[in-house]
Backbone:
């Protein structure tokens, strides 16, 4: 069986790190090969052109930032495809749907955005942890001590949250991120087991 690609999506502070950690331990307990990654990579995040926009809002053409994002993800996916073909499961902290949502809110046409990415693999399971925008802002301030350029606009997370709902795959697992973390984890594991079973894979006795 080829590996599963699991995308963990959501606004900042939605609990992605917590759920990725819990799911990682579950896979490890079952002695299954797993690779954790994130999108975009640090190479994109640290590009001076990207940092100039994210930190200060300076950008000559938003398409340039979108192309940098697409190039980063396409290159990253080449590595992931090899791991998946080798039967290694992958959990990705964010996926292309974050780019779709954010660049849509930044004023780009969604079809133009998707054309940049081409036919990138659809995850076997896409999880979207949904929280209220005001909670996101509070958690970012508590975590970072400050807000970056876009985060200072009170409407940004409301708009991104709505954009996510229009770009996520139809079978995405949308979960209230304010629920008990263990309950969320149990629901995610149940879906993982179902997908593995449907693909003719092994069964798990661990709950």
Residues:
């Amino acid at each position: 069986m080829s590996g599963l690609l699991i995308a963990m999506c959501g606004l900042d502070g939605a609990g992605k790190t917590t759920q990725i950690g819990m799911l990682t331990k579950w896979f490890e307990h079952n002695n299954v090969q797993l690779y954790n990654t994130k999108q975009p990579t640090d190479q994109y995040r640290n590009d001076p052109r990207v940092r100039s926009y994210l930190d200060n809002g300076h950008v000559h053409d938003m398409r340039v930032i979108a192309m940098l994002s697409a190039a980063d993800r396409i290159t990253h996916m080449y590595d992931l495809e090899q791991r998946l073909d080798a039967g290694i499961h992958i959990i990705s902290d964010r996926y292309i749907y974050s780019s779709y949502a954010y660049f849509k809110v930044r004023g780009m046409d969604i079809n133009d955005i998707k054309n940049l990415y081409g036919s990138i693999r659809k995850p076997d399971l896409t999880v979207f942890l949904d929280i209220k925008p005001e909670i996101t802002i509070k958690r970012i301030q508590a975590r970072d001590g400050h807000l970056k350029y876009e985060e200072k606009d009170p409407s940004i997370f409301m708009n991104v949250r709505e954009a996510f709902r229009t770009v996520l795959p139809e079978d995405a697992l949308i979960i209230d991120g304010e629920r008990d973390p263990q309950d969320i984890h149990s629901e995610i594991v149940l879906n993982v087991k179902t997908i593995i079973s449907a693909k003719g894979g092994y069964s798990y006795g661990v709950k």
User: Anything to note?
Assistant: The longest strand covers residues 5-10. The mean pLDDT is 91. The chain has one domain: 5-198.
